[in-house]
């Protein structure tokens, strides 16, 4: 009988030995893609772990990683675990002050920085960090691997003895939430919680040993880390490259079969395709015809998908003929941009518009929405190819419990729930409650189950708009509907809590507005100038008016304003996973918002 896996050390050693000969990681090196097997990765991870033990790393000590998404991140993370330490994650976009807070709060003793530039951030605040013993860069990894290999050979069994000291309840990862408000909180995730998530995800049969994942998500975030663990546990390969501008160029080269992403990526692709098609009247008519065919065929395709696979999900009769023509003229070209082998995407982090899900399905690529939190060791619910429903986040993973409170808040329970917030006992007590032997995590999200057990997220408890007239509005659905209907919009932030009517701040998608302006003989003098042009304002207002026609009167956007910049992580208006920090955006534009209600601002 196979012994159970209690820790990530058990999982890594067992799975990477089992899949030793299989392709593991693909990455760019000197401009070209190269690869290594899981066995080769395992050997390097053990050597680096040995170097860490040789260097004095003690059981449970924190090692921070300050780097973008690249294969060395996964190597360091795995090595820290094998050495009995705990990984602390820092986003590469963090300022020196933000790095200092995480390093100091976590008592990190060692930092692996991506390069000299990232290491320089630490050096600026080094005097504040009493626990920090050493700062290393990825350039020093080859030397550490050599020394660790030699130490491991001279101290046979010592590394495995360290690993044997680790239990399921020990800290594996300390992830600081980027958060939409307030001070970052260190989420303590245990070995047992991560093993539970890995096994529960494997049980969903999303991917197998023959699948290749394309991973660009930040590994400092729980979603990206869970995706690496998923492929390790199932034997599939991972192509890793964190450069978002290079995604479209990389996909045809590595030809993945699935890819995790956040809705913002799908929105950008969707809007770009529509924007390009609209530049030619003939092409746009063909494109709109293909979309209408895809929408008409969607119910049939959805019904057949889980029985026969997308390749055979062709409607019968005349609709099938039209669908094949639409696929040849439009959808196959979109699929080719993703490498031609993409079966499915996994989307998380924010709600996805059903219109966008339909669009990608027409191109033969299924988007499976899931739901989870840093505090729940990533995935808690997910759609699967044989059980999915657009507009929902799927059904709970095996072992995950979901409860809907009287006010609509979603509570999650199960072995993946965090041990707590590091050094924040009161915030832990506020977030996690024990009831009937179950630790329940208050998510702050609102939701409901449909009649077939699929969970639908309806909004955020804190984001819920309650108008002066007492009407409740979940802004995310309206914001997503406007973004999906207009390729010229990048972001929408709806406002109206305790107000007499609702308004919105809108960011234009300058990648599409620029060509639109050029085609009409209008100058493109940069983002702010485009957003200020009356023609662009009229373009956006047209889409706002169309959306308003579908909303209840109290939900309509009475006024909107175009901001002179797009929201970004660097400005602090987006989190690292590209979620809007609503309170920050509102605070930055308080005078403008107040002006809507004072009468000083009344139009685009």
Question: How would you briefly describe this protein structure?
Answer:
The chain is 42% helix and 22% strand.
Give an overview of the whole structure:
The chain has 604 residues and is of the alpha/beta class. It has 21 helices and 26 strands. It has a 7-stranded mixed beta sheet with strand order 6-5-3-4-7-8-18, sandwiched between helices. Strands 11-12-13-14-15 form a 5-stranded mixed beta sheet. Strands 16, 17, 19, 20 and 21 form a 5-stranded antiparallel beta sheet that branches. A hairpin with a 5-residue loop joins strand 22 (465-466) and strand 23. Helix 1 (8-18) runs antiparallel to helix 2 (38-54), helix 2 (38-54) crosses helix 6 and helix 8 (191-202) crosses helix 9 (222-234). The longest helix has 28 residues, at 281-308. It is globular and about 75 Å long. The model has no long low-confidence stretch (mean pLDDT 90).
């Amino acid at each position: 009988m196979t012994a159970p896996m209690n820790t990530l050390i058990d999982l890594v050693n067992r799975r990477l030995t089992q899949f030793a000969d299989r392709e593991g990681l693909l990455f760019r090196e000197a401009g070209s893609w190269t690869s290594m097997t899981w066995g080769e990765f395992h050997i390097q991870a053990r050597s680096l772990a040995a170097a860490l033990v040789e260097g004095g790393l003690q059981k449970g000590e924190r090692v921070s990683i300050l780097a973008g998404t690249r294969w060395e991140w996964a190597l360091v993370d795995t090595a820290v675990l094998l050495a009995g330490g705990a990984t602390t994650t820092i986003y590469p976009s963090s300022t020196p002050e933000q790095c200092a807070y995480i390093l100091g709060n976590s008592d990190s003793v060692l930092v692996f920085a991506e390069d000299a530039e990232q290491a320089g951030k630490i050096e600026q605040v080094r005097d504040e960090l009493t626990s920090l013993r050493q700062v290393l860069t990825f350039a020093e990894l080859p030397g550490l691997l050599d020394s660790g290999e030699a130490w491991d050979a001279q101290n046979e069994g010592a590394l495995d003895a360290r690993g044997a000291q680790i239990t399921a309840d020990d800290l594996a990862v300390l992830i600081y939430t980027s958060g939409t408000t307030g001070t970052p909180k260190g989420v303590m995730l245990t070995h047992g919680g991560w093993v539970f998530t890995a096994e529960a995800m494997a049980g969903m049969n999303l991917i197998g040993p023959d699948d290749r994942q394309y991973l660009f998500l930040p590994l400092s975030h729980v979603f990206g880390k869970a995706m690496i663990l998923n492929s390790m546990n199932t034997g599939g390969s991972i192509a890793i490259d964190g450069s978002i501008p290079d995604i479209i160029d990389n996909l045809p080269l590595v030809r993945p079969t699935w890819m995790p992403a956040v809705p913002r990526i799908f929105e950008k692709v969707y809007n770009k395709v529509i924007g390009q098609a609209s530049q030619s009247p003939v092409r746009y008519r063909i494109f709109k015809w293909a979309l209408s065919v895809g929408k008409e065929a969607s119910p049939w395709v959805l019904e057949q998908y889980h029985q026969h696979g997308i390749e055979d999900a062709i409607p019968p009769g005349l609709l099938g003929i039209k669908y094949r023509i639409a696929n040849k003229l439009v959808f196959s070209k979109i699929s080719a941009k993703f490498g031609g082998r993409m079966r499915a995407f996994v989307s998380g982090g924010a709600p996805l518009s059903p219109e966008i899900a339909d669009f990608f399905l027409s191109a033969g690529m299924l988007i499976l929405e899931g739901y989870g939190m840093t505090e729940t060791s990533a995935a808690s619910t997910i759609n699967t190819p044989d059980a999915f429903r657009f507009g929902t986040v799927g059904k709970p993973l095996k072992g995950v419990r979901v409860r809907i409170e009287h006010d609509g808040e979603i509570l999650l329970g199960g072995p993946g729930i965090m041990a707590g917030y590091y050094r924040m006992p009161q915030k832990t007590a506020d977030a996690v409650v024990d009831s009937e032997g179950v630790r329940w995590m208050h998510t702050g999200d609102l939701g409901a189950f449909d009649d077939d057990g699929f969970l639908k997220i309806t909004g955020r408890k804190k984001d819920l708009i309650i108008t002066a007239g007492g009407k409740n509005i979940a802004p995310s659905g309206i914001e997503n509907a406007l973004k999906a209907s207009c390729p010229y919009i990048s972001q929408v932030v709806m406002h109206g809590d305790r107000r007499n009517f609702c308004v919105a701040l809108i960011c234009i998608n300058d990648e599409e507005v620029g060509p639109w302006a050029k085609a009409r003989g209008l100058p493109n003098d940069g983002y702010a100038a485009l957003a200020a042009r009356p023609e662009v304002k009229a373009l956006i207002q047209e889409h706002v008016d169309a959306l308003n026609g579908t909303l209840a009167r109290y939900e309509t956007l009475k006024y909107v304003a175009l901001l002179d910049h797009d929201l970004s992580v660097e400005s602090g208006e987006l989190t690292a996973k590209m979620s809007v920090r609503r309170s920050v955006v509102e605070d930055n534009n308080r005078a403008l918002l107040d002006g809507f209600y004072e009468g000083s601002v009344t139009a685009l």
